[in-house]
Each structure stands twice: as C-alpha cells, then as structure tokens.
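Whiteboard transcription, Tuesday session. T.W. wrote the structure tokens on the left side:
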C-alpha cells in the first residue's frame, strides 16, 4: 500500500470493509511507513483504546518502533498509573509534559489556550526531539463531528507525514481487536468512559457521540485539543 494520499471515499470504506480487511489495511499502511521512514516513524500514544490498538499494530511491524506520550498535570490518577505501567512494559515510550505555570482554572476560562499549552506544545517538542518524520495516531473518523474529514495519510505540516492507520475502524472494531489480542487498557473504561482526556474536561455520558463527554459546558464540547488541527512542525512556538 502506498503512502501517497489517494482520493478514496472514506465513509464508504468504513462500512464496506470488514474487520479483517481493516486490520490488514492498517498493518500495510504501518509497514509501508516503517519502510519509508524507519526510526523517523513514531507513534503518539494518548493511553486511550485507539492508541493502544495502534501501538499493538505497530509493534507487530517492528518491536523497534518508538512512541511518545503527552501527559498533563490534570490527567486522572488511573491514567497516570496506566501510563507508568505502559512505560515499564515499553521503555521506548517517551513521556512529554509542560510544567510551566498557567493561570488558575484556564481549562474553564480558555480551554483552547489550556490545550495549546499543555498538549500541543509538548507534542511539538516530542516531534522535534525525537526527529519524527512520520507520526502515527489513533484517530478514527467515526468518533465524532470533528473527525469526519481526516485522511489515512496527511501532509499538513511540511516535512511531517501524519498516518492515521485506524481511521476507518468503528469503536466496536477497536474493542474487538483489543479483546482478541488481550491488550491491557486504561481502567477508566470500566467506569463507563468512552473517550479519555484530562479529569476536569472529561465526563461519562450516554450520548451516542463517542466524544460527547469531552469539554462539556464549553464551546469546545465534543471537540479537539488541537494536536490534530494545529501545525506541529517548523514553528518557533509563537503560535502558542
Ligand atoms: S483537556 Fe482540559 S485540562 Fe487538559 S489541557 Fe485541555 S483544557 Fe486543559
């Protein structure tokens, strides 16, 4: 499979490919990217279900593949514990965090700025420090209204390919894969969360939208932290 972005009907593929075909397609994308980028290929691991599935898929291509985790001062205790377990299992996972002082309750007064500082900035740093030329995410186009327009291979940043190898997977297929391969997951899913983020900005909901529990009560509700929408490379940080 080529990494050249092809104009395919993503919505059609989501419902026409079966589970096995999606797994094979994801592995083919990762295998090609690994061949083209080698150690420049790095997996972003948010510690959510989609990320751990992508991490497992990547490790089937090569145990040498590296990853990074962006964490914040506001991550739930269960996520922090799970992060330590993951790093102990995979020492090639590096952790990035921004500990700079920020205004009190910024997540309430200006969640976009809070995410820029605590999530986008460390992501940019990870990409720079790890010499990333292709970053791999667990983004899926059926997660919510903000995720329908992404492609499996994106070239938004000059010199940085973004690979979304499970873009076509349904939420159910992620759980199917994790169960079949007995992949450990963040214990917060047992409480009823479907999409995980920082504690003050994440709630359990019964809404059909998978990301409806994110940033409830703000203009960002069900939205994005910015790592999938903001430039990540060749910036001096002035945009933050
Ligand atoms: S999710 Fe909330 S607390 Fe976390 S960085 Fe974004 S606004 Fe801040």
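and on the right, the sequence the group agreed on:
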């Amino acid at each position: 499979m080529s990494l050249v972005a092809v104009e395919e009907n993503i919505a059609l593929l989501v419902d026409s490919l079966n589970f096995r075909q999606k797994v094979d397609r994801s592995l083919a994308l990762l295998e090609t990217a690994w061949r083209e980028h080698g150690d420049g290929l790095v997996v972003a691991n948010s510690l959510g279900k989609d990320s751990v599935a992508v991490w497992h898929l990547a490790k089937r291509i090569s145990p040498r593949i590296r990853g990074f985790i962006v964490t914040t001062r506001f991550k739930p205790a269960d996520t922090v514990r799970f992060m330590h377990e993951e790093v102990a299992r995979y020492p090639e996972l590096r952790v990035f965090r921004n500990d700079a002082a920020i205004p009190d309750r910024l997540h309430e007064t200006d969640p976009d700025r809070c995410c820029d500082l605590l999530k986008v900035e460390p992501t940019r740093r990870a990409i720079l420090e790890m010499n990333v030329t292709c970053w791999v995410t667990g983004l899926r186009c059926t997660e919510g209204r903000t995720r329908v327009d992404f492609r499996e291979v994106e070239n938004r940043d000059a010199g940085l390919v973004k690979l979304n190898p499970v873009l076509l997977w349904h939420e159910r297929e992620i759980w199917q894969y994790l169960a079949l391969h007995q992949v450990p997951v963040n214990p917060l899913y047992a409480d009823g969360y479907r999409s995980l983020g920082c504690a003050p900005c994440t709630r359990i909901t019964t809404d059909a939208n998978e990301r409806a529990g994110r940033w409830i009560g703000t203009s960002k509700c069900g939205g994005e932290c910015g790592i999938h929408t903001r430039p990540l490379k060749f910036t001096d940080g002035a945009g933050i």
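Someone added at the bottom: Residues 72, 74, 107, 111, 114-115, 118-119, 197-198, 200-201, 225 surround iron/sulfur cluster (CB under 6 Å).
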